[in-house]
Amino acid sequence: MEKDILTLGIESSCDETSVAIVKNGREVLSNIIATQIDIHKKYGGVVPEIASRNHVESISYVVKEALKKANVTLEDVDAICPTYGPGLVGALLVGLSTAKAMAYASRKPLVGVHHIEGHIAANYITHKELKPPYLCLVVSGGHSHLVHVKDYTKFEVLGKTRDDAVGEAFDKVARTIGLGYPGGPIIDKLAKEGTPKYNLPKTHFENLDFSFSGIKTAVINFVHKEGENININDLCASFEEAVTSILIENTVKALYELKIDKVAIAGGVSANSYLRNKMEEAGKKNNFQVYYPDLVLCTDNAAMIAAAGYYNFMDGKRSDWNLNAVPNLKIGE
Ligand code: KG4
Ligand code: ZN
Question: Which of 26, 146, 192, 316 gets the highest tally of CB atoms within 10 A of its CB?
Answer without folding.
Answer: 146
